[in-house]
Structure formats: C-alpha cells, structure tokens
Design goal:
This protein has 302 residues and is α/β, with parallel strands linked by helices. It is built from twelve helices and nine strands.
Length: 302
C-alpha cells in the first residue's frame, strides 16, 4: 500500500520514533562524509505554489545526498495552473516519478493528489498543516532535551499550520502542549477537540506567561503567514503581547530552548536577543529539516 504524509496523524508513534532514530543516524553519517545512496535512480517531483528556502533546499539536497534526483515545479509551470484536474496530474506524475512533495495553500489539494497517486505524496506545507517541520523539530528537541516524555512544550502566537501540526504531534507522543493564542487566532477547532477527546494533553489559553511557565521548549512563528500580508499591520497590534522576549523566557525552565521555523521577523514575534542568543536552537532546527526528510524519503521511496 502506498503511504503518504499529509499530516502527522498519518504516522504511528512507532513510525515517528523509527524515523527520528534513522534521521539521527543519517545526520551522523553526513557529518562523517558517508552519505548512503539508497535512492539511486529515484526521482522526486516538487510542486511548490509558495516561496520556500528551507523546504525546497532541504528536500533537493536531501534526495541528492541519498543518490536520487529532483524536479522543481514552480508556480505556473504545471498544467494545474491552467486548470488541469489535480487528479489527472497525480495519475501522470505517478508514471514519471517516485514521489511528490507539494507546498501549496489548500490541504485538500494535497489530499486529492494523494487519493489519485500511486506514489507517495508528502505535504511540504499547506495553510492547515506543516508536518515535516514539526517532525524535524521533534528531532531537535530530542537532541537538546533527551526523552520527550513529559516535556512541557509551549506555543506562543498564531494558531496557524505550525500550531495545528504541534497538536497532532502531541496526540501521538506523550508530552504536554500549552498554546497561547490571541482570541480569534486559535488553532483548528475540530483538531483541538479531537486531541482533547482522545486524552492528549493539549491546553489552549490566551496567556503567554502561563503557557511558558516551566516549559522546556518554547515555539513561535511569524504573526502573518504567507497569504496574510494584508493583515500584517492589524496583527502586529493584536499579537504584540505574544512576543517571545527575554522577559517571557524568564518564566520558562532555566534550560529551556527556543524554536522558530524561520523566516523570523526580529522585533516582532521574537526579539533578536532571544533568536540569536544561547537558548535558541533555530539553526540546529533548520539543519535537522535536511536529515529528518532524508529519513522520510528513504522510508517512503526506498
């Protein structure tokens, strides 16, 4: 059966743990200059409707390091931009390549590709979920904090695709997640209800200090995501109390780390002092996109 990664809920806890273990192995091999090449002869198509630095480069470099090749398809470069059905694109690409990464707006676009493809489809970001980012962030957490069990994680800011993906991670792994979001900017209601119904320790409030209190991991993201630029000025006023700064960090555990998926707007959702300071894991976090996604590609395409 063809496997896809549309959200973290497509994986079991055991599969996540195996992928994290393999990602650490691949990272160690890479640093020793001994990249394995299990994907020799494999090709990855990359359909990107949104700009990208980390997702694009980490997937392109990742499959190259594993011996494979990639084809980047920018906005307007496929017939989907001229209204070819997504289902037809999925059927055709399934005859040409071995997997597809899609970075687009609607989650339904990725889901429809997966329904009609006979090759793995990977969600490289939608407005609703960003599974590859959060899965690789779990790798960074393990590197810095050890066992994730019981580790308090805080999310401060917009209840966006990253917040949703953190909720799905907490549904599979045994850590408490505390989200602090302004009123009207909460994560997906149905996803939150699903998490709480199955007993996941996911808590939503509007107080950043309460969310961060004693946390080992503090997460944030830009206040206005791609496609929300027109809301940026209004959002700055609403989100100002949700800035991750040195005062807020004093509420966290002394050994806490800060994650930001980047790009960051210093002086808005996070201060330069924190992002560029000793508690920031943002650069390890960015590197780990490469190694986790190599583990994912090896598993799905191998």
């Amino acid at each position: 059966m063809t496997r896809h990664l549309l959200t973290i809920l497509d994986l079991s806890r055991e599969e996540i743990e195996r992928l994290l273990t393999r990602a650490r192995e691949l990272k160690a091999l890479h640093h020793r200059g001994r990249n394995p090449t299990p994907l020799t002869g494999k090709t990855l198509a990359m359909i990107f409707d949104k700009p990208s630095t980390r997702t694009r480069v980490s997937f392109e470099a990742g499959i190259a390091q594993l011996g494979g090749a990639s084809i980047y398809l920018a906005p307007g470069q496929t017939q989907m931009s001229r209204h070819e059905p997504v289902a037809d694109t999925a059927r055709v690409l399934s005859r040409y390549v071995d997997g597809v990464v899609v970075r687009t707006f609607a989650q339904e676009t990725v889901a429809e590709l997966a329904r009609h493809a006979t090759i793995p489809v990977i969600n490289g970001l939608t407005d609703t979920h960003h599974p590859c980012q959060v899965l690789s962030d779990l790798m960074t957490m393990e590197e810095r904090c050890g066992d994730l069990t019981g580790l308090k994680v805080a999310w401060v800011g917009d209840g966006n695709n990253m917040a949703n993906s953190w909720i799905t991670a907490a549904m599979h792994l045994d850590f408490p997640l505390h989200l602090a979001c302004p009123a009207g900017y909460e994560p997906d209601d149905s996803l939150l209800a699903q998490a709480q119904a199955q007993g996941a320790r996911v808590y939503l409030g509007q107080d950043p200090q309460a969310a961060v209190a004693g946390a080992r991991v503090i997460n944030t993201d830009v206040w206005a995501s791609m496609g929300q630029e027109e809301e940026a000025a209004a959002r700055q006023k609403i989100f100002k109390p949700f800035q991750v700064n040195s005062q807020l960090m004093k509420k966290a555990a002394p050994q806490a780390i800060v994650l930001h998926c980047l790009p960051a707007h210093r002086g808005e959702e996070i201060t330069a002092e924190v992002l560029d300071g000793p508690q920031s894991a943002a650069w390890d976090q960015a590197e780990n996109r490469l190694h986790f996604q190599k583990a994912l590609l090896e598993w799905l395409l191998g």
